[in-house]
Amino acid sequence: MTNKELRIGVIGTGYVGLVTGTCLAELGRQVICCDVNEEKIRKLNDGIIPIYEPGLEELVKNNRERLTFTTDIKYTVQNSDIIFIAVGTPMGEDGSADLQYVLSVAISIGKYMDHNIFVVDKSTVPVGTAEKVEKQIWDSYFAKFEDGDTIPADDGMVEVLSNPEFLKEGSAIADFSRPDRIVVGHKSEEAKQVMYDLYYPLVRDDASKLIFMDIKSAEMTKYAANSMLATKISFMNEMANICERVGADVNMVRKGIGSDTRIGPKFLYAGCGYGGSCFPKDVQALIKTAHDFDYTPELIEATERVNLKQKYVMANKVLEKFGDDLKGYCFGIWGLAFKPNTDDMREAPAIYVIKTLLEHGAKIKAYDPKATFEAQNCYLKDLDVEYCSSKYDAIKDCNALILLTEWREFQLPDFFEIKKNLKMPIIFDGRNQYGKLNLPEKGFDYYQIGVKHV
């Protein structure tokens, strides 16, 4: 099977699936990208990219001859030797990962499978999912034969692998093309060789970045990695809250501990709490998995509690400054996405801040370079928020500016323009962007996270 160019199918054209399929096409492979969402596939075939990710639109355009976008899952299964499952695993009410879409794909693979296939779980899934997927494929495969039918001897060998993604929104193309590591969980040597051949162009300078292991360890690796990073963020936010009370500066503390090579400087920035599609969901899924196996993950549960509390920190600072009754006050919000270079608002701190201030009677004006559509049509739908076309329009006649996302265009604004537009020269900086700019000397009442206000 490894003596021919293996055909690739990617089921799911969301963030992970579309980036994966496009980047594999960039390596010269023919890739079929399949999705049940007809409107999304129509847009992709028309050259319209349904998500914002720097560089993705150009990459899709450059590789259009090698990319097929379709809703035909039968065609995808029967014309692919490697199938990546990259559908969503949304968080259930109990915190567990909902596998209904993953298992639905498995049913389709079994139904239409007519040759040997390697199935790769790219979605973030709990430990043990590969076994469930493989069982579902075989159950579906055998169900299509009537009693007494002869089952072809060579009609369907399937092996399910785990290949968790480690893509960061805003830098996904670079992350895929120049990975820190590629983790593959497998059973057979043939599967290992197939994945080695597929990914070798990305790690030819350092093949040790391609890490092979058993499937359950690979599944756990993704949850462990995201929970570790989430814990670092929550730890620094906890330190920030202590720093404010004792008079220390969390920005200095970050430098002091980040210079320790055992700790490192990354993910040590205090802020409004983490959001997005991965950290909140994966932390809660790992907590649920631990409880399913009669273990209480106290540290990870604390990480989650600290993060939820941190999302209200900026709103609480506003309430401490202006009081509980905010009727007659208007606040300008800079940043809606959970991080820069994405339109993703899932679990974004802006949601918590805006809803809290609205509940206390405030008026809200907001600006984000990319996430306004998501806010209007999903995450802040039906809320009384005025969306503006520029950062300065968003603060005109407002009582204060609240910075929540560290977009590049917010890093060095015109502070004279800010002061001219605001009713009061007050800035609440949820990302500590302006700590070195001596804003109090410029006449601003300036609030940071992790620095005592004076």
Describe the structure.
- The chain is α/β, with parallel strands linked by helices and 454 residues long.
- It has helices at residues 15-26, 38-45, 56-62, 73-78, 100-112, 129-143, 172-177, 189-203, 215-246, 250-258, 279-292, 298-310, 313-322, 349-359, 372-379, 415-421, and strands at residues 8-11, 31-34, 67-70, 82-85, 117-121, 158-162, 182-185, 210-213, 330-334, 363-367, 385-387, 400-403, 426-429, 445-447.
- The strands form three sheets. The chain has a six-stranded parallel beta sheet with strand order 3-2-1-4-5-6, sandwiched between helices. Strands 11-10-9-12-13-14 form a six-stranded parallel beta sheet, covered by helices on one side.
List the topology elements.
Layout: E1 8-11, H1 15-26, E2 31-34, H2 38-45, H3 56-62, E3 67-70, H4 73-78, E4 82-85, H5 100-112, E5 117-121, H6 129-143, E6 158-162, H7 172-177, E7 182-185, H8 189-203, E8 210-213, H9 215-246, H10 250-258, H11 279-292, H12 298-310, H13 313-322, E9 330-334, H14 349-359, E10 363-367, H15 372-379, E11 385-387, E12 400-403, H16 415-421, E13 426-429, E14 445-447
Helix pairs in contact: 1-3, 5-6, 9-11, 9-12, 11-12, 13-14
